[in-house]
Amino acid sequence: MEQEIAKNPLNLAKWALASVDQKIKTSPFQVNTRFALDPRISHERQLELRKAFIEIDADKSGAISLEEILNFLRGINDEVDENYVKAIFESMDVNKDGGVSIDEFINGYLEQVNGLSEAIARYNQTVAAKNKELATLKEQLEEAKKVEKMNTYGIMEGSTLTVRVIEAQNLNIVTGRPTAYVNLICERQQIATKPIPSDKNPNWDETFSFKITMGTGELLVQVFNKGTVSKDDLLGTCSIPLQDFRDQSKHEGWYQLTGRVTNARIMLAIQWIHRQTEYLEGIISGMENDVVQDVAEKDRIEAELRKLGTNPLGMFHKESWVDRLESKVVHEVHEFTDKHFKSVGNWNTILTIGIFMVAILGIGTSFDKPDFGNVTWACWGFMGMIKGWDTKRYRLGMITLAAMILFDLLWIACDSEFLVFEVHSDPAINAKRFSFVMGFFDFVLKVLLFPVIVRCYMKSKEDDSQAIFNT
User: Fold this and answer.
1) Residue 156's beta-bridge partner residues?
2) Half-sphere exposure (Cβ direction) of 205: Cα atoms closer than 13 Å
3) How far apart are CA 442 and CA 358, in angstroms?
4) What's CA 170's distance to the chain center, in Å?
5) Where are the beta strands (DSSP E) in 55-200?
6) CA-wise closest residue to 249 among 212, 213, 221, 275
7) Rounded CA separation 322/137 (Å)
8) In its keyword annotation, does this UniProt entry include Nuclease (predicted)?
9) Rounded CA gap, 256 and 263, in Å?
10) Separation between Cα atoms, residue 28 and residue 23, nearest integer Å
């Protein structure tokens, strides 16, 4: 069903929203997110579409043709799908005269773009919430590694079995209806639910915990009919081995009761945590895989937006060679740092330390030659710390840092004979050598600092996008 919708450009918005709904609903890792499309976004897109219409309308006739819109969109990006654009254009051209008015153009595009953009925003929110949850889980894992101790049975101290007694069915007795309650017994611990009066299908929905030391026994479940005068009658029982829950997952299902009542059954939800570190590692691994799937789905929807000629924010934007080069560099840095420095938490802190070191090494380089570039860049970085970094400042810092790296590379290639760590009898030569060595280390530092500022730039762009999408 999803593929059929995806093939129809007129149903892209519905397909994307159905995709995100299905993914969120079926995910084993539920997070709380709230999304509402800011009307300012739709208004901004309308204004941009109006500007685009004027630019597309090359002959200034007040109506645009399919050829005009295709030429315009191909100039924006080369991923435009002619069939998509043609299908949407034909749906706009109600009177089939080969021309589309400005209102028809805006309404036709806006419906699809808004739906696709909303789906992307919801994926972004879900991924952000899961990443936040992952950070908390990783902190809990580190803490668990410090305190977890195993007993002689190979179970952690403080191991817990959690049992949720949900409901029972078919508790038929000879006369009337039972006042049923459940008695749970595990490793010499006994807990009972409250009795539900006069109900053959009682619903308790109560949760209990047992401390587990050995983990080799069983959970005994007993269902009683509470007596008013005589003792309580045992209606049925079932025994469940604890080893059934060794995987530490939550198990919910029906268990058949044996005893006086036939066809009776009880629904339980049971989970046994016997190794906290192993349990957390499993959750973290599963959630990380879920995030990868969410990002892949988001990328798939972004690809559909690009086929319509817009960027992932649903805006028309003509990319220059600089934009394409920047996108390529940012992508490569992201891949490299994700592979080798995935555990790095705060890139901004590393950037701050790096700026201080660039300033110090820049001053050291100035012993032989003025190094206004490095010192000025560092001072500009200090201003960013004081005033606050934003996406434009990160981008400018990234570009200027790349330019300084290229300049330093040429400088080192020309004066490499001064890369000597010995003391010379001539103080002037020593000054040159010291200055060059400081400059060389400054060059190495800037090469290492470049992926750091790129990651900061990426994070700032993500925050900007989230701010646009969220109310």
Assistant:
1) 150
2) 1
3) 6
4) 45
5) 160-169, 180-186, 189-192
6) 275
7) 40
8) no
9) 7
10) 10
Q: Which residues of the chain have pLDDT under 70?
A: 1-12, 28-48, 76-79, 94, 229, 309-321, 323-324, 367-371, 415-427, 429-430, 465-471
Q: Which residues contact 394 (CB under 8 A, 6 or more apart)?
A: 453, 456, 457, 460
- Tokens of residue 39, six digits: 């009307």
Q: What is the pLDDT of residues 234-275, one digit of tens each?
A: 999 999 999 999 999 999 999 999 988 788 999 999 999 999
Considering just the CA atoms, what is the radius of gyration of the chain in Å?
33
CA dihedral 347, 350, 352, 354 (to 10 degrees): -130
In degrees, rounded to 5, the angle at the alpha carbon of residue 124 between the alpha carbons of residues 118 and 127 is 140
Sign of the four-CA dihedral 146, 152, 155, 159: negative
Give backbone dihedrals phi and psi of 408, rounded to 5 degrees, phi first: -65, -35
Give the type of residue at 329.
Answer: V
Q: Are 308 and 109 in contact (CB under 8 A)?
A: yes
- Pairing type for strands 203-211 and 233-241 reads unpaired
Write down the H helix ranges in 57-101. 66-76, 82-92
Task: Spell out the SS3 assignment of 318-375.
Answer: CCCHHHHHHHHHHHHHHHHHHHHCCCCCCHHHHHHHHHHHHHHHHHHHCCCCCCHHHH
Both tokens of 442, joined, read: 């400054």
Q: What is the pLDDT of residues 310-323, one digit of tens each?
A: 655 445 555 566 76
Q: Is 108 exposed, middle or buried (CB count within 10 Å of its CB: 0-12, 13-18, 19+)?
A: buried
Domains along the chain with CATH numbers: 2-143+288-319 (1.10.238.10), 160-274 (2.60.40.150), 322-469 (no CATH)
The rounded distance, in Å, linking the Cα atoms of 86 and 104 is: 14
For 296, the token pair is: 């892949």
Beta strands, E only, 391-458: none
- Tell me which long-range contacts 387-396 makes (C-beta under 8 A, separation of at least 24): 389/348, 389/456, 389/460, 390/460, 391/457, 391/460, 391/461, 391/464, 394/453, 394/456, 394/457, 394/460, 395/326, 395/457
